[in-house]
Write a structure and sequence with these properties.
- The protein is an alpha/beta fold and 419 residues long.
- 68% of the residues lie in helices and 8% in strands.
- The protein has helices spanning 2-16, 19-45, 58-65, 79-87, 119-137, 142-149, 171-208, 211-216, 221-254, 258-263, 275-301, 308-311, 313-329, 335-340, 347-356, 362-390, 399-418; strands at residues 49-54, 72-76, 93-98, 104-109, 158-162, 165-169.
- The strands form 2 sheets. It has a 4-stranded mixed β-sheet with strand order 2-1-3-4, sandwiched between helices.
- The chain crosses the membrane at residues 21-42, 178-204, 225-251, 271-298, 310-329, 362-384.
- Residues 21-380 form the ABC-2 type transporter transmembrane domain.
- Pfam families: ABC2_membrane_3.
């Protein structure tokens, strides 16, 4: 057991300091910091567009001023005053309004204005004024005008099917689940690919430098195998812990920022601490370990470090397959998606997305998770046998031929044991 932890510690500390692991951990944090910084900067520095209203009808100008908000501020000026301010670049633009025969407008805006006016809001305000003018010309009462402009009512209700029954879900929950599923898909694909290549590189480096022969003289191949898997798991846990601490510290600051306060009421973040999130984390851990075992198998089949990129191609292909199927799942839950969400290697990416999108039940996700765990256990012990047989075989024939050679050696050893 002491040797097991020595190997685990050595592999863990070596990769903890490696540039590939540090970039994997820091890249999302840096990207998120940049996005938050940009949002904070624009939130602190954004100013409403200053629009001069030139019209011969003061009532129109006053009506527009009542619509002032954080995006547009209207001010009633004469044509001369407006032109002077525009020349001095102290206003964003000039809105010239004619009231006869009906309300029409022309807007001139500075090309280099710090803040551009929202034309859709401007059109909405002018359309409302034009409607009021037309109603007055037609001698409609306020009640008739209100009845005319009131849009048809339509309600949207989001439901999910649980145990054959409709269960109401909030619309904001669907949006949050979609964002969660998209982020989860990318994150899982990235992690399993990088960690798989990291472990395969570790084993190939030891084989190529012949260090493996020295290590096996004091530590068994099985002990090394499980120690390396443990080190990968500890690296994964370390990464998640870093994200948890960084997220907690960031939230203490973010929740007090105005641009976050504006978004939060319309977003349902309950998915982040729900059963869905817990199951997604379990799939994430199981998936990473499953791909790590596959990486150990592929790494043991190469003769040197130069063959690693070719050897780990199956990891990339399986990860991409799960990624594309997860993207397809966001468009609809077809039979193909349902079947693949129970197949090992693919289900660790696909099933959490289906669950987040409420396309499946917790029971179905639990069954898929159980399949993933059983497969991981069986696959691990099978790979251990191959690893023990092939870790000292240096074949330049390629991965497929090396696997066949390893299988023949394993069969011969079993035959000798029986005899």
């Amino acid at each position: 057991m002491n040797k097991y932890w020595i190997v685990t510690s050595q592999v863990y500390r070596k990769n903890l300091k490696s540039g590939s692991w540090l970039s994997l951990v820091l890249s999302p944090l840096i990207l998120l910091a940049i996005v938050i910084g940009i949002g904070w900067y624009f939130g602190q520095n954004s100013q409403p567009a200053q629009v001069a209203v030139v019209t011969d009808n003061p009532v129109i100008a006053q009506a527009l001023k009542k619509t002032n908000d954080a995006d547009i501020h209207y001010q009633h000026l004469s044509a001369t005053q407006a032109k002077k301010k525009l020349t001095n670049e102290s206003i964003t633009g000039i809105l010239t309004i004619k009231t006869q025969p009906t309300i029409s407008a022309k807007y001139i805006e500075l090309a280099n204005a710090e803040t551009s006016a929202d034309l859709s809001k401007m059109r909405t305000a002018l359309s409302s004024l034009k409607t009021s003018q037309t109603a007055s010309q037609l001698k409609l009462t306020p009640a008739q005008l209100q009845a005319l402009i009131t849009p048809a009512k339509m309600q949207k209700k989001t439901v999910s099917i649980e145990n054959g029954k409709q269960v109401a879900k909030s619309n904001s929950t669907s949006t949050a689940n979609y964002a969660f599923a998209t982020g989860l898909t990318i994150f899982i694909m990235l992690i399993i690919t990088v960690y798989g290549q990291m472990l395969a590189q570790e084993i190939a480096t030891e084989k190529g430098s012949r260090i493996m022969e020295i290590l096996l003289s004091s530590v068994s191949a099985a002990t090394q195998f499980f120690a390396k898997l443990t080190a990968i798991l500890l690296l994964l846990v370390t990464q998640l812990a870093i994200y948890a601490v960084a997220g907690g510290l960031s939230w203490t600051w973010l929740k007090h920022q105005s641009f976050v306060k504006e978004i939060l009421p319309s977003v349902d973040l309950s998915v982040l601490w729900s059963t869905t999130s817990l199951i997604a984390i379990l799939f994430f851990i199981i998936g990473t370990m499953t791909f790590a075992v596959l990486a150990a198998l592929l790494g043991s089949l190469v003769a040197n470090q130069e063959q690693v990129n070719t050897a780990v191609m199956p990891i990339s292909l399986l990860a991409l397959a799960g990624y594309f199927l997860s993207i397809m799942a966001q468009a609809g839950d077809s039979m193909l998606i349902k079947v693949f969400s129970y197949i090992p290697f693919i289900n660790v990416e696909l099933m959490p997305v289906r669950l987040a999108l409420q396309h499946t039940t917790l029971l179905a996700a639990g069954i898929s998770l159980a399949i993933a765990v059983i497969f991981l256990i069986a696959f691990t012990f099978m790979v251990v046998k191959v690893y023990q047989t092939n870790v000292l075989v240096y074949s330049e024939a390629g991965v497929i031929k090396a696997m066949r050679q390893s299988f023949r050696i394993w069969q011969a050893e079993r035959k000798n044991q029986k005899d």
